[in-house]
Amino acid sequence: MPAYRLLAACKDYLWGGHHALREEFGIESTLDPLAEAWVLSCHPDGPSTIASGPWAGRTLPEYLAEAGPAVLGSNCAGFDRFPLLVKLIDAEKDLSVQVHPSDEYALAHEGQYGKTEMWVVLRARPGAFLYYGFEREISREAFARAIEEGTLLEQLHRAPVKAGDVFFIPAGTLHAIGAGMVIAEIQQNSNVTYRVYDYGRLGADGRPRPLHIEQALAVTRCAPAPAFDFGPHLGSCRYFTVDAHDGPFAANCGPESFHALLAVSGTGTLHCGGEAQPLQAGSCYFIPADSGRYFVEGDCKTLSILVVPPMETA
To answer: By CB neighbour count within 10 A (0-12 exposed, 13-18 middle, 19+ buried), where does 12 fall?
Structure first.
């Protein structure tokens, strides 16, 4: 089967940039600021659209509904909805300090999955940093007191970043993307965020953006972010596996899972299903399960993402 190129659903959050996603990653949008491009999405808050092939102009959820579960693969059978969301994020300003809940909490209180995610830093200006978990373990009471007294940032681990860095953020990890970076985010299919601290900023309505202190206190792990060893993978968890490729590579898309292919730099060509399609930074393709062997050629860096069976890995 051929691969399907996707058009992103875009978001204009107030902290977003103005040029990078359009000029460096080819995202088609008139939004300004252009903060996020949801390049692979079945989420109702912003589904991506198929740009190539006989399904051009249809949303990805529409295609999947008509094509049937076989194009998702057997690993997706354990999920009651599409499991992934892949974004490009341009943070010109600091994002809020926030946390995402677990599946159990989110399904009980929000009606959707929780959010485990990972970040791949694509570009970072000198001195850029992000907040990633706590500097040391503290009590929930101390966490609440730091929020109330405005000293929360002093409790967090401040991590300097450069292009190529990877951060894995399990649900319950307090975090914040800092100003001056573009990242690729691979996450569960969820849009649940509990905002804890927002630098006193005002939203489009001129009012402070709402905080979600009670929910954050219920779901946050008040400790340093855990260390991870993903072996041969760039990232791996109970929901997805991510691999990085620098230059040409070949892979097999079997019946277990579809593959998502995201180009993050350079240019190349994707050969799949007897078709050759262009790759440039920002290109994202949905490769249906059981498409067989495909390969990439050219001077480009890509991320390939697939679904693992629920609970297969910790």
So the answer is: middle
The pair phi, psi for residue 214, each rounded to 5°, is -60, -45
What are 258's two structure tokens?
């579809």
Amino acid identity of residue 217, one-letter, is L
Burial 68-83 (b: 16+ CB within 10 A, else e): eeebbbbbbeebeebb
The answer to whether 38 and 187 have CB atoms below 8 angstroms apart is no
CB of 36 within 8 A of CB of 89?
yes
* Topology, domain 4-219: Jelly Rolls (2.60.120)
Instruction: Determine the CATH number of domain 235-307.
Output: 2.60.120.10
Angular region, 27: left φ>0, alpha ψ -120 to 50, beta rest: beta
Give the residue extent of every domain in the chain: 4-219, 235-307
Distance between CA 210 and CA 197 in Å, rounded?
A: 9
Distance CA 197, CA 183 (A): 21
Catalytic residues: 195
**Which H helix or E strand runs over 44?**
none
- Residue with tokens 């008139």, as numbered in its chain: 30
Helix, strand, coil tally for the chain in percent (to 5): 15, 40, 45
The stretches of 166-281 forming alpha helices (DSSP H) are: 213-219
**Among candidate residues 20, 46, 42, the one with its CA nearest the CA of residue 33:** 20
Q: Can you read off the two tokens belonging to residue 19?
A: 């040029």
- The stretch 64-87 carries a mean pLDDT of 94
Q: End-to-end CA distance of the chain, in Å?
A: 32
| Residue pair 40/60 in contact by the 8 Å Cβ criterion | yes
* Best CA proximity match to 283, nearest among 2, 5, 74, 3: 5
Q: What is the pLDDT of residues 35-75, one digit of tens each?
A: 999 999 999 999 999 997 889 999 999 999 999 999 999 99
Give residue 80's pLDDT: 87
Please tell me the distance from the alpha carbon of residue 156 to that of residue 175, in angstroms, as a whole number.
Answer: 8
What pLDDT is stored for residue 248 in this prediction?
Answer: 98
- 231 phi/psi in degrees, rounded to 5: 60, -130
